[in-house]
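Progress note, project year one: complex with calcium ion.
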Amino acid sequence: MDALEILMNKDHVVPYFQPILSAEEQSVIGYEVLGRININDDVKTLGDFFHNDNIPEEYIIEVDEHIQHLAFDYYCNANIETDLFINCNANILLSENDYTEQLISRIKLYQNKGLKFENIVLEIREHDYEGDLSQLGHLILYLKSFGIRVAIDDVGRGGSNIDRIALLEPDILKVDLKFIKDGMLSPSHRDVLYSLSMFARKIGATLLFQGIGDLTKLNAAWKNGGRYYQGFYLAKPCSQFVEPHCCKQQLTNEFEQFINHERKKLTQQYIFIEHLNSRLEEVVRKDKKHSSEEIIMSISDHLEDVCFRIYICDQYGFQRSTNYVKKDGSWQRQLEYLGKNWSWRPYFLETIVRMQYDRRGILSDLYSDIETNEFIRTFSYPINGELYLFLDLSYAFLFEQEGLLY
Ligand code: CA
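Model obtained:
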């Protein structure tokens, strides 16, 4: 359907509402307003209309206004307190028209019927925005001065840039999980989600995951700090509001499943760490009087089923042994590593201090090895107050163990 046809059939354009659920209460906390055109009961999305740069601004504004009026009417008649998420084009909000003022007056018009600024969330796509970022920042501050909240839509898509988003200080980040395909979450996607969750935490924004189309995506949202969820797997867009607790049973059951799964995995990791600690204790205790090289040799003998690289550092991060690396089934010494410093690596100092206090070994998270580019984990173990042993565990080894790959 082309743009003019949509405009001529404006009377058939209606708002649809997609429920947004909260993890805290497992109930509907809001609805995203979406545009649909309904001709003879054939309902089509207006997504292409709103995201096409070639369509004149006036057309979009006209259809937007129409949808918002209907949505606000419906909201006020329903007499509820949930949030309404409204999609806005940043370029239109900031172009030479008074769209922003009109939007604000439109909301004011419904104030005495029960619509509050505090219940409005404006969704803005940062990566579509072509203008000066500080202008968008000012607009967001202005909107917030009314009590309106701002969500950055589709974070992570279309080359959106995390430090740009931080400058905008949004209340909510919407992350689309559509990129997870075939029920599988790749390690690199897992890292991206983890980084986004840390980022949201640092800037104090709430994470909303959308595009939740299956259990894997719901799990990814739950595991990565998702407070709000939206997607077909939970609730489809619909011309009417739904019963607020429509997903409570489902979410409660699935959270329980997630927790049981995580707990099992953490227990397996705990058992593995205990086991490795006692094996190392035996080897290291026997070798107390020996040099770093001798300790490493003895470990390569006793723990060759576990690791593919062994070395010893002091508490300042200086490597006090050579590298012992297993290549093609036999151990090789890499002399050039002696004396290198690793204190600059993430978590290094934190790990040393924890070992000094706990006097036991620590398993790192899964990370990509600089040399092999494989996902590995490192097991660090205190030999004494001065020397610390590092064992790198290969992907193949982790794969064989229960619960060590994630
Ligand atoms: Ca949106």
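The mean pLDDT is 93.
The domain at 261-400 is CATH 3.30.450.20 (Beta-Lactamase).
No further modelling is planned for this target in the current period.
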